[in-house]
Amino acid sequence: MGLETLSPSRAGDFKHCPQLFKFRAIDRLPEPTTVHQARGTTAHLALQRLFDLPAEQRNPEVLYDLFRQAWAELRTGDEFEGLFESVEDERAWGIESLEILANYFSIEDPTSFDPIDRELDMLEDMDGITIRGILDRMEETPDGRLVITDYKTGKAPPERYAIPAFFALKIYALLVRRRTGKTPDALKLMYLNGPTVYEIPVSDAQLDAMDRQLRALWTAIDRAIDRDIFPTRVGRLCDWCSFQEICPAFAETPATEAVGVA
Ligand code: SF4
Asked: Is the CB of 249 under 6 A from ligand 1?
């Protein structure tokens, strides 16, 4: 059976390491939930809800309350239940999360605009390939530019490594162009832990290149599924990979040696 839909995240997985893609998209192996994921999910929900409110109510105290409410809803769900070993650990995580969220207001003024879309579920059939993903936010700036924005609660990579982080946003820009006929003007990554903002302009030529790259990835994935061959690609990502213990690349090599191969 071939590929049915592809998300920007899974496309990124295959690009980094086909075996990682297999573990996640084909085998659907569970991965341990981390406190960083809990912070990301909760902060996204709080920021999404901040824009449900009238502009004059979008202030830090309201955002902190929205974060607390969102965590109260999420903490007992299957994904995050039992994540913290003690109440003290959870409280320390909460305090750190609010400190990171406070940075948001030094990056932008949420009272000055209303996003066009938030948490938009995008499913696009693109002549033979079907791409699906959730776009964080899209807005028009006061000077009329269409911008796609992604929130991150982690720390930003150094600027020289920032461009690969735009991979998913370029796919979303392609989907937006396909759906609306309008090419977004810019892509923005907002790293709240820092904070750091990276923004790059978008061009039709760039999106045409992404279209070709996605089709090539789709073909490569289909071929990998057909042949059941998913090569490992050992690199820096392995340090954070949940599957290192079962990864073929580490099966014959002591982990300490394999991790060093970048
Ligand atoms: S440990 Fe490294 S090589 Fe193995 S699946 Fe994960 S990212 Fe790929």
From this structure: yes
CB of 247 shorter than 6 A to ligand 1: yes
Paired tokens of 223 = 């071929």
Three-state SS sequence of 176-207: HHHHHCCCCCEEEEEEEECCEEEEEECCHHHH
Please give the order of strands across the beta sheet that includes 146-155.
117-125, 130-140, 146-155, 186-193, 196-201
- Separation of alpha carbons 202 and 102, rounded Å: 29
Predicted confidence at residue 262, as pLDDT, reads: 37
How far, in Å, is the centroid of ligand 1 from the Cα of 213?
22
C-alpha–C-alpha distance, residues 117 and 234, integer Å: 38
Nearest CA to ligand 1 atom 4: 247
Q: Where are the domains of the chain?
A: 35-107, 117-212, 231-262
pLDDT in tens, 36-73: 999 999 999 999 999 999 999 999 999 999 999 999 99
Q: H or E stretch including 124?
A: strand 117-125
Is 3.40.50.2000 the CATH number for 117-212? no
Which atom of ligand 1 is least distant from the CA of 17?
8
* Distance between CA atoms of residues 123 and 132, nearest Å: 4
**pLDDT for position 207:** 97
Binding site membership of 243 for ligand 1 (Cβ less than 6 Å): yes
Q: How far is the CA of 20 from the centre of ligand 1 (A)?
A: 6
Choice from 247, 250, 252, 259 to test ligand 1 binding pocket (greatest atom count within 8 A of CB): 247
User: What is the pTM assigned to this prediction?
Assistant: 0.89
